[in-house]
Amino acid sequence: MEEWQNASVESNGINIHYHRTGGKGPALLLIHGFTDNGLCWSRVAREMQAHYDLVMLDSRGHGLSDKPHQGYSTDDYADDVAGVIAALNLGTTVLVGHSVGATTAATVAAKYPQLVRGLILEDPIWRDQPGQSDSASPEKKAAMVTAVRQQIVVQQQMNAQQIETSGRENCPTWDAEEFPAWVQAKQQVSPDVAATLVSLRGDWQHMASEIQCPTLLITGNPDKDVVVSPTVVAQAQAINPLIQHTQLASAGHNIRRESFQPYLAAVRQFLACSLA
């Protein structure tokens, strides 16, 4: 393990855990996806720590952060991040997010524009049609949460080797470096985070319109398991000219894990221009 800082801060009424590389470069705050943890950014951090100060937080309910029984809305996650930025005195920060974490990052930028100087969104939950949970009845939403909770519980009954074996079978293109933190994250996550999937805000268009900083939207191949479609990309750029777009056609939803070097190249180029 690298000699990264390992600590927690109080934010939004709970303790949020993070790892931090330190260094004199600009701060990047990295927000992981659903059921991951902060160390799932380790491979990116190793590549970029010489030039940036990377803060990899564990979102509420994940990793070593507090695990309340409720409070898993998009706004809850965003308010946590805003509190971390303030608690660590990061000033205006570049936010980097994946999936649910990318949606969180965009929400922070929209709600707290004074805190964010740049935004990198890896396949956020921005859909061209409302998701199942948006129009579902309360009974159907409850059933969806129960099903996802049960998936988490079943996975946590497996040992680390079994979780990794399953992950390698499902994600054969991932580098071996990805799995230690990914397995750890699955063991740490609270089943209560299942509520996240039925409480995500569906009004991404409004969120996108409120972003005031340079933004890089990174998408994968529409024929794979991606969320952001070409239609959404076109809508987002029409809504907000600050949104740039890069497509990495060999990747699915886990873009950086499936197209690592092209992802890094896109991120570095964006940062070089937006932080200049």
Automatic annotation (TrEMBL):
<dbReference type="InterPro" id="IPR050266">
    <property type="entry name" value="AB_hydrolase_sf"/>
</dbReference>
<feature type="domain" description="AB hydrolase-1">
    <location>
        <begin position="26"/>
        <end position="128"/>
    </location>
</feature>
<dbReference type="InterPro" id="IPR000073">
    <property type="entry name" value="AB_hydrolase_1"/>
</dbReference>
<keyword id="KW-0378">Hydrolase</keyword>
<dbReference type="InterPro" id="IPR029058">
    <property type="entry name" value="AB_hydrolase_fold"/>
</dbReference>
<protein>
    <submittedName>
        <fullName>Putative hydrolase</fullName>
    </submittedName>
</protein>
<dbReference type="Pfam" id="PF00561">
    <property type="entry name" value="Abhydrolase_1"/>
</dbReference>
<dbReference type="GO" id="GO:0016787">
    <property type="term" value="F:hydrolase activity"/>
</dbReference>
